[in-house]
Amino acid sequence: MTKDEAEELSDDLSDDLPDDLPDDLDLDDLEDVDDVDIDPLDDDVDDDDEDDGVEPNDDDDDDDDDDDEALDELEAEEREMLTEDESVEVIVVDEAAEMRAIRRAEISLEDESVDSPKSGEFVCTSCFLVKRNAQMANRRKKICFDCAS
């Protein structure tokens, strides 16, 4: 919208206002408006399609396929627009396969068991590394010299 169009719209709106309005209106000066009774909506509004004999469309799978095809086309067009240097840097990633690989890695980490510290060792409460007791700076807090400094 240009500046001229905005000014014209503002002039049109101000022409529609009554001329006897005071410049400074106060909320206390306004008359109280009684609550307006509103009829509740009919519950059968959603049932109109069934009455007309029109069956709802359950072809969601076709829409997903169309979306995937459209996305693939857009990605192909985007790859065509890349210069030679940019196309070398582009990595095509299968997101579903990537997510499965990440999940497998998480599961394999859950299966690994951690050995508890042996005698003469402790776990630093700051860096969580297993250290020898000789590297303990504070016995009460169980903090190593590296974390204490």
Descriptive notes:
The chain has a domain at 73-111. 45% of the residues lie in helices and 7% in strands. The chain contains six helices and four strands. It has a two-stranded antiparallel ribbon with strand order 1-2. A two-stranded antiparallel ribbon has the order 3-4. Strand 1 and strand 2 (130-132) form a beta hairpin. The longest helix has 22 residues, at 60-81. The two termini are 63 Å apart.
* Tally of helical runs: 6
Q: Could you give the order of strands across the largest sheet?
A: 1-2
Spans of at least 5 consecutive residues whose pLDDT stays below 50 are: none
Helical content class: 40-55%
The rounded distance between the terminal residues' Cα atoms is 63 Å
Using the alpha-carbon principal axes, give the shape: extended
Total E-strand runs: 4
| Secondary-structure-derived class | mainly alpha
SSE order: HHHHHEEEEH
- Provide the β-strand percentage band: 5-15%
Mean pLDDT over the full residue set? 75
Largest sheet: 2 strands, antiparallel
The rounded Rg comes to 35 Å
SSE layout and pairing:
Layout: H1 3-16, H2 48-51, H3 60-81, H4 84-89, H5 95-111, E1 121-123, E2 130-132, E3 136-138, E4 143-144, H6 145-148
Defining key terms:
two-stranded antiparallel ribbon, mainly alpha, 7% strand, 4 strands
Describe this structure in a few short sentences:
With 149 residues, the protein is mainly alpha-helical. Helix content is 45%, strand content 7%.
